[in-house]
Structures are given as C-alpha cells and as structure tokens.
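dude i think i finally got it to work??
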Amino acid sequence: MESTASHLVFTRSGLTFAVPVARIFQIVEVPKVTRVAGVPPFLLGVVQHHGEILPVVDADAFLGVAKGAGLRVRSGSGFVAGSPGGRFIVEIDATTGLTQIAVEDAGPRAAETNDLLSTALVSGRAVSVIDLDALERRMERELSLAMGHGAPREIETPLRNARLATE
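look at this
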C-alpha cells in the first residue's frame, strides 16, 4: 500500500519546491523584518506574528539555491512552519497549489549536494521536496554555533524558544 501526504508546492528563485502540509500553520505576507546581528546568513531576521517573535528564513541562502542570496528583492510572501519545538517563517515567491506525493515517489537525497532535499515527480516535472525536520535540525545546529554554544546539544536557541530578538 502506497503512503501519500499532501504537500504545498511553491516557487523560489525560479525553482519548484514542496513541503508537507501537516507542518504548515499558515501562508502569510511577511511583514517588515527586523535584522539581528550575529546570526547565520540564512536568517533574514525576525518578525512579530500574532504576538510571537518568529525567525524568517531566506530559502535561497539556506537551501543553497542562488548565489548572492540576501541581495535579491524580498518577495513578501511566506509560510509559517514548524513543530512543537518552535515555529519559523520561510520566505517564498509564490504558492502554486497542493499535491499528493507518495513517500515512495520522493527519491533519495543527494547528501553531497543538499541533505534537506529529495526529488519527486509532480505533473511530469521534478519538484524538490524539503525535509522540514532536517531543515529545523540544521537551523538549530547553525544557530547554536553562531551563538557560540559549540556543537549541537539540548540547549535553548532562538528557534527553540522564539525569543531571538531579546537574546
């Protein structure tokens, strides 16, 4: 029996990606981002969203999509994703719809290029499926290192407690 899951399909820098709908809280217009000193380049800064401070991730920089990420014009669109451990916003260009992706359809990750992505065929074209668990773990690790905590371990980081602006 083939297991499928609903995925949000979106574009960023001319490429098509998908993320599991189960991990998406909301599609949003990203308000003005407050920059934060000393964070990795993939973190554009933070925003206040419904009374909560959330980090905003530049998908280009984090996924290695485009050279010179952070210099491009911001799109203003994004989605709020996360887990019980913390929520974050991923900036995107546009959503293109929802689709069912079979677990078996998502091909193996090319670890040498990007361990966060696998590939699936959606309507005859290749779509990069983002592993949000791996994305969250990598963000935690890179934020921990940027904050001088060293190797990843159970510590409070900005993503974990959503208080980046005050740390």
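Residues 67-73, 109-113, 151-167 have pLDDT under 50 and may be disordered.
im so relieved honestly
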